[in-house]
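FORM 7B - TANDEM STRUCTURE REPORT

SECTION 1: FIRST PROTEIN
SEQUENCE AND TOKENS:
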Amino acid sequence: MRRWLAWPMGAALLFGAWLVTLATPTADADEAPFVVPAALGEEARGRSITVTVTDVRLAEHVSAGAWAGEGVWLVVDLDAAAAREEDRTALGGASLAIGERTYRASERPPSFFQQPLLVGIPREGSLAFELPPDAVHEQAVLRLSGDWETRLDSLIELPLDLADLDPVDSVELTETGWARP
């Protein structure tokens, strides 16, 4: 083989190896969730739940019945229903990803978090996320699912720009109940 031909062939082999690494799935790809994109005000249908996020607000004070809390809160109002079966179907997975950090919906106030769902009969309520003050200027992704375990299941994702939200002084969480048509 000619000496000048070795360099282009070596470069072609490196390029081919690079393409193979791009096409090779990651180690956890065989268990990754199926992402269902969502938009504010539009219905997103996963395998076990159907969700419509109706409003997103930042507040310094949040209350729910007799409970009240101060701080930086992201309040998410939504309607949700079971998609296929009612047995053990709830809004069990609710998290907010901001960069490398993930925040779980607060269990302190009475909210829609982990509430049971019915097929075809939407319920409405609120989720509350307590955030650090520096998080309100970043991009976030709201993730909702029927269970915390989302391997090989659907995961509803709604991108949010927290910097675009106008903070309010106080928000009352929507009492969990039947959604209005």
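SECTION 2: SECOND PROTEIN
SEQUENCE AND TOKENS:
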Amino acid sequence: MTPQEMRARIVRYGELQPCKTAFIDAHTPGSDQKENFTIIGGGVSESADQHVHITDTPGFNIGAAGQPPKCRNSLHSHRTAEVFFVLSGRWRFFWGRWGTAGEVVLEEGDIINIPTGIFRGFENIGTDYGMIMAILGGDDAGGGVIWAPQVIEDAQAHGLVLGQNGKLYDTKAGQALPDDVRPMPTLTEAELAAFPEPTAAQVIPRHVARYRDLMGLAGRAPAQVIGAQGVLKDKPGFEVDFLNGAAPAEGQVTSGRNDVLMVMRGHWRLTWAEGTQTLAPGDTCAVPPGLTYTLAPSMSGEAAVFRVRDTDDAAGPTWQG
């Protein structure tokens, strides 16, 4: 693989293109300043304005959300895995029909594997603009987003209507649903009853891993964060490993899988037979299957990388009660 070909598989943090109209709550006060980024795969954006950096999916999607302080992402659910790690800022994740079943606060480097099939939302509770990086299970990211009824109702009051085709229509901008498209219906009470309401005590031990703990676990070899043998035991269609720059010592890697490198801290040197690239915090690199590479910090100081790798497991539910 030439350096030019590898460069096309790297999305730099500074090159990320945001979409401010990605979801149904784009006009709702309190959620109208958020930015959505689609890095690998189409993600679950409902807007035609969403820019996709790398269209091919490796069995999962990679995205990000950027929000100023006090901005929140409204309650929604997914059919497949939704994993976040905090790149910058301080974030509160909350869940349940009304967002009151439980919550957890995540700091930089912390990671959460949110259970499928529950309503969840998140907000930036820090003092500066913050960014969280996302991994969504499946090539099609589970077929989109399921919104809590109040989110759809609030959006309609501010001019946004979601069609059953999964597309947004802005009535304030003169748009209307096509004649053959019905509005997305809200869930019935019977349907809502099927969504679990787990407590924080049920979710946090099985679905949250702290950055400092991962730094201690990743010694001479990467620590598996999500996987059959992971800190968070799950099989969502991908695995997540954590590499500590203090002692990566992994040598050459030829996984035969799609390895996506997501830099948390520090600068890392990616080397393969035909070239070298340096990756910085917030950069995402899609290493193709079968390529032999090494990855090591390029300078002193704290360094950490999350590596996502596809598996043969189905991208199905992760919450088991």
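SECTION 3: OBSERVATIONS ON SECOND PROTEIN
The chain has two domains: 13-208, 211-310.
DSSP finds five helices and 24 strands in the chain.

SECTION 4: SIGNATURE
Preparer initials: ____
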